[in-house]
Amino acid sequence: MPDFLPDYQLHLSQDRRFRKIITGPLTDRVKRKNFALRLIQAIINQQLSNKVADVIYGRFLAIYNGKEPTVAQVAATPAMVLRSIGLSNAKVSYVHNVANFVITEKLTDGKLQKMDDEAVIACLTRIKGVGRWTVEMLMMFHLHRDDVFAMDDLIIQQMVAKLYKLDISNRKDFREKMKKISDKWSPYRTHACRYLWQWKDQ
After folding, report:
1. Separation CA 58–CA 85 (nearest Å)
2. Does residue 112 contact residue 120 with C-beta atoms inside 8 Å?
3. In the chain, domain spans
4. Which pTM value belongs to this model?
C-alpha cells in the first residue's frame, strides 16, 4: 500500500477481513471544547431520533439565547424550564447532575485531556445518568482518543458479527471473540469503530 496513507489505515488494513470495509481515509474529527456540554447533549439525545434530538437541543440552546451555556448557567436553570423543552424528569435530573459534578470537581477540558482513557471513564461514570458508552463517544469524538473500542455499541456488535461471521447467541463467548479481534486493531480501535459505523451506513 502507498506509504502516504494514514497510519491507522495502514495498520487496520493488515487485518484481511477488515480490509474489505476500508474505503479510504476517514473524515477528520472536529475539535470542540466544553466536554460538559457534549455530555449534556448526549443525555438529551438518548433514545431519540436524530431529527427529534436536534429539535430538542435547539430548544435547549434557545434557553440561553442560542449560545452554549456554562455549567453554572445549566445548574441554575430551574427543572421546570428544562422540562418545558421536552425533557423527561430523569433527563432533567441527569443534566443537572453533569453540571453540578463538573462544578464540584472543578473539571475542565484540560484536566480531562491529561487523564488516561480508563481514568476518564472512571471519573465521568460517577455521574448518575452517564454510562460507559456515553463517555466512550466523548473520548472518540471530542477528546480525540485513538484507541477506544465501543464494545457495548449495538451497531459495532452487529457489524463485527457480520464481518467475522460470529455467532452472537452465546453473549459471553461473542464478547470474548470481539475483544480478541479488536485487540489486533490497537492502537487505532477508535478508527476501526468509525469504519464499522460507516460500513453500516453504506
Report:
1. 9
2. yes
3. 7-27+149-201, 35-141
4. 0.90
Residue-wise pLDDT tens digits, 73-103:
999 999 999 999 999 999 999 999 999 999 9
3-class DSSP state for residue 115?
coil
Residue in the structure block whose three cell numbers are 477540558: 109
Who's near 25: CB < 8 A, 6+ residues apart?
Answer: 5, 6, 9
Q: Give the model's pLDDT for residue 48.
A: 87
Q: What is the CATH number of domain 35-141?
A: 1.10.340.30
Helix (DSSP H) and strand (DSSP E) numbers for the chain: 13, 0
Largest Cα separation within the chain, whole Å, is 58
Give tens-digit pLDDT for 122-147.
999 999 999 999 999 999 999 999 99
User: How far, in Å, CA of 72 to CA of 81, rounded?
Assistant: 15
Cα 52 to chain centroid, rounded: 19
Cell of 46: 438518548
Task: Report, in this order, helix, strand and coil percent for the chain, each rounded to 5.
Answer: 60, 0, 40
Q: Which three cell numbers stand for residue 83?
A: 422540562
Phi, psi of 94, rounded to the nearest 5 degrees: -65, -40
The closest alpha carbon to 60, from 71, 44, 48, belongs to 44
